[in-house]
Amino acid sequence: xxxxxxxxxxxxxxxxxxxxxxxxxxxxxxxxxxxxxxxxxxxxxxxxxxxxxxxxxxxxxxxxxxxxxxxxxxxxxxxxxxxxxxxxxxxxxxxxxxxxxxxxxxxxxxxxxxxxxxxxxxxxxxxxxxxxxxxxxxxxxxxxxxxxxxxxxxxxxxxxxxxxxxxxxxxxxxxxxxxxxxxxxxxxxxxxxxxxxxxxxxxxxxxxxxxxxxxxxxxxxxxxxxxxxxxxxxxxxxxxxxxxxxxxxxxxxxxxxxxxxxxxxxxxxxxxxxxxxxxxxxxxxxxxxxxxxxxxxxxxxxxxxxxxxxxxxxxxxxxxxxxxxxxxxxxxxxxxxxxxxxxxxxxxxxxxx
Length: 353
What we know:
Largest sheet: 9 strands, mixed
Shape: elongated
Structural class: alpha+beta
């Protein structure tokens, strides 16, 4: 018979998994450390619905994005924003792919790609941009997605406990005993299975439980939110694959997100063993938030001069976590560690922003 299941982490991955397990007949409780669900990495990102274009050096990641794209569009159509044109531009400067390579890569993964119209080509500095392609890629409204997921979990009788942290797990009889801290103190809950879906906090639970850590790389990142000039209001632009910056609609704020591969990460650190662990939430809370906006825009306007008219509004700060091997090819595999060290403890981490 189905039993009790604990999902640790109320991000999109955790909520989606909780709904899936509930549909299968399990009694599911989600524990979220923050005051609301889907307000950390699920909100503080580019809000891009990936269609594979981002990964010319990782065919597997690109193909996985291509498979997921239409499914996400169908399932969450009410929060998908598609009323803008999207362009990928290949740089002439320090790019790791050429325009021809990018075009053939799109053909290989079955992603729509054609040459951009003249009015878009006139926007760029031809000394810095080699090729421009019109593609199909969308954005999503994170707040609408959150409301959709909350509604779906309510309909499945999934219990969501906010301001609640699962601090430790231990084997107990034929399952797992989880220790939970909240405003009312500390208590324990028994479960057949615990799914650790806490992204940048994955190793927090392992460390507190005296379990081996999973090697992970963390980056403290800044995504700027900006007002763009009228000519860019209904455009999304990504310049790759060396400079790699993006200006994308960010529907939740009616602004555009602005990110840059060199300046969005402010610093990084590793979890690689029990001697090298730093609580990423503590690091996030202690962060001195000094924006790198002026450096982002100074570089980006060399490629697209009209970007100098962007008006900075605010920044989204977050800890981005990836597998260390992703540095080699920009791949973004999903981490899945079933029965990690103890039966019933499963670690899952989505690999994309």
